[in-house]
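Exercise: predict the fold of this chain.
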Amino acid sequence: MIPDPVLAKAAITIVTLTLKNESLQGAVRRKIGFDPLQRAVAAALKAAVTELETDYPEWVAALFDESFLTKEAAPVFAAVVTRGRDASATELARRYVKSLGPSRTAQQSVRRTERVAGVALAAYTAEIRRHDTYRSFAYFPRRTRRT
């Protein structure tokens, strides 16, 4: 099992990436609050880890370590929270393989990792969408830039 402090740290990174627009950060903090969104993300990460422990126990420590969750994986998980953006199991797998360093068999490694990444993303997405905080954020009005 991944320790809760690691999941909490990853959740902070993911929420920060999600709210990288400062005006959006202020508005969301006033309406929803940073902590509830962070707790929803942490719960979704925990659901992903739990699913992997059931289906792919050998991958949990490899795929869900603190470094990967707070660096390479965070933008992919943030995409799930951000309305209008899809997260890709291929992208998560690609980031994982890239984090391991250069390899001649990188493409094969991505294909092997993709199924596991898909299970993790599906569990994360299902859990985050169950939370009222996510639904409030997903339908939060956003300003669009005019060009």
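Check your answer against the key: The chain has one domain: 4-138.
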